[in-house]
Specification:
By secondary structure, the chain is an alpha+beta fold. It is built from six helices and 13 strands. The strands form three sheets. The chain has a seven-stranded mixed β-barrel, surrounded by five helices. A four-stranded antiparallel beta sheet has the order 1-2-4-3, covered by helices on one side. Strands 8-11 form a two-stranded antiparallel ribbon. Helix 3 packs across helix 4.
Length: 258
Amino acid sequence: MGWIFSPLGDRALVAELQSGLGSGEDWMRMAAAADRLRQSGLNWIVDVIPAYSTVTVVYEPSALKWDGHPVYSAAEREIGKVLAAPAAHWKNEESIFNIPVCYGAENGPDLTACALRSGMSEDEFVRAHAEASYQVALVGFVPGFPYMSGLPPRLAQPRHVTPRRRVPAGSVGIAGGQTGIYPLEVPGGWQLIGRTPLRLFNASRREPAMLKAGDRVSFVPIDEEQYRHLEEKLAAEAGSQPYSRSISNMAEQGGGMA
């Protein structure tokens, strides 16, 4: 099964497999391909961005040895060689995150409608969402936004026909059969069911995004008082701890978050 390449502007290309995989684990193959490219030693590669069924490669044309061929053709040839090599099964160094979420009310304005569409009470919907185990399939849309697999099928929801102009940072949403968290205040059309006080993206950190592909995520329901407490704690500790430790400490000290 070979790869198809398409140009994306004058310094990027998109790679996808010739035939659709049709598997819920497509993203794992894309993540494996991205890792191989990052480790290839091709110093003209600027960035590698895996998605569900494609890998986008951003490159620096002036650093690429094009040997008389068009720059894009040279990039496609060299990237094709890397992706054609036999690949071991991708295994990410995953982390496990327990993410506190205050569900409903102003933090989750769509919870009532979502529960109604699913034929459940709000409490049942929250319990089903929080009891599921999720895995980050990819990060995109805006910096640090995790698209997560593992949503129970009965919780699937349609996107809003008209997106909101402003979705608060930390909002937990559902769209189709996936759940995600808005890391920044941006427009968005996902159904909002709750909000976390955690900051999923911080440009001042060495690794700005909290979550990466392969990470495991569980949601831990908290009430409004706990939300405010953790929000204040985070503000006081901003930038002082790595993400995983910050979350672990909050899980231990949050009180009633188990």
